[in-house]
Amino acid sequence: MRPANIKPISYLKANAAEVLQNLAENREPFLITQNGEARAVMQDIATYESTQETLALLKILALGNQEIEEGKTTPIANVARRLRSKKIADK
Q1: Which of 18, 27, 42, 89 is most buried (CB neighbours < 10 A)?
Q2: pLDDT tens-place string over residues 31-88
Q3: 23: how many CB neighbours lie within 10 A of its CB?
Q4: CATH 3.40.1620.10 domain locations along the chain
Q5: What single-letter DSSP state applies at residue 35?
Q6: Residue 23 phi/psi, 5° resolution?
Q7: Distance separating alpha carbons of residues 44 and 21, to the nearest angstrom
Q8: Closest to 23 measured CA to CA, from 53, 48, 54
Q9: Rounded CA gap, 9 and 65, in Å?
Q10: Is 21 buried (19+), middle (13-18) or exposed (0-12) by CB count in 10 A?
Q11: Phi and psi dihedrals of 45, rounded to 5?
Q12: What is the CATH number of domain 3-43?
């Protein structure tokens, strides 16, 4: 994070519109400090949503890996056979 993107909370209070415009244009987060300590990070909504989607995908992958480790798997041939028989039954 660039030093220019580290601001005290007083700066945020006085320049909220400018900070939001900067976030939208540059898509770089701001670190907000209070009494010289990091307290919060602000980021634009597009980056936030992208991060949330990435985290959801990582969670799905982690759950899949956990199921593999626990032996909760089904051979692909069995799955294909079940899907084919379901497709025929639905007709």
Answers
A1: 42
A2: 999 999 999 999 999 999 999 999 999 999 999 999 999 999 988 999 999 999 887 7
A3: 19
A4: 3-43
A5: T
A6: -60, -45
A7: 9
A8: 48
A9: 42
A10: exposed
A11: -65, -35
A12: 3.40.1620.10
